[in-house]
Amino acid sequence: MKTTDGETIYTLEVVNDTQMAEAPVLGWYPVYAVRAGVEKDSWILRSTEFLNATGKPVMTVEYRNVTQNTGIPENIFRYSPPEQAVVKPMRTVVITPPIVP
Fold first, then answer.
1. In whole angstroms, what is the distance from residue 60 CA to residue 67 CA?
2. Residue 61's pLDDT is what?
3. DSSP secondary structure of 8-24
4. CA atoms in the 13 A half-sphere facing the CB of 47
5. pLDDT of 45-98, one tens digit each?
6. What single DSSP character describes residue 41?
7. Which residues pair with 37 in a beta bridge?
8. What per-residue confidence (pLDDT) applies to 53?
9. Residue 95 CB partners (closer than 8 Å, separation 6+)
């Protein structure tokens, strides 16, 4: 946990013994862990680090001026691929806030 811009930031880390993804940094680097910084109260993602097998960052992404629920209609996020398209699942990393009763 740290403080950035007056916000408390939680650090969440997902580590795997085998490669879990690739980072597109001047080529493709194997990723074995992902470290994310999220705001304590809003769970807004503030940073993401992709780490190699030795735990060193191969790519770091910082998010600034993030806003949520800005009135974008839900249908803007619907995607219908063309009929001839072959849709294949891709490997993803997802961070979700805890469910609070």
1. 20
2. 92
3. EEEEEEEE-SS--EEEE
4. 17
5. 999 999 999 999 999 999 988 888 788 888 888 888 899 999 888 777 665 555
6. T
7. 11, 47
8. 94
9. 12, 36, 38, 45
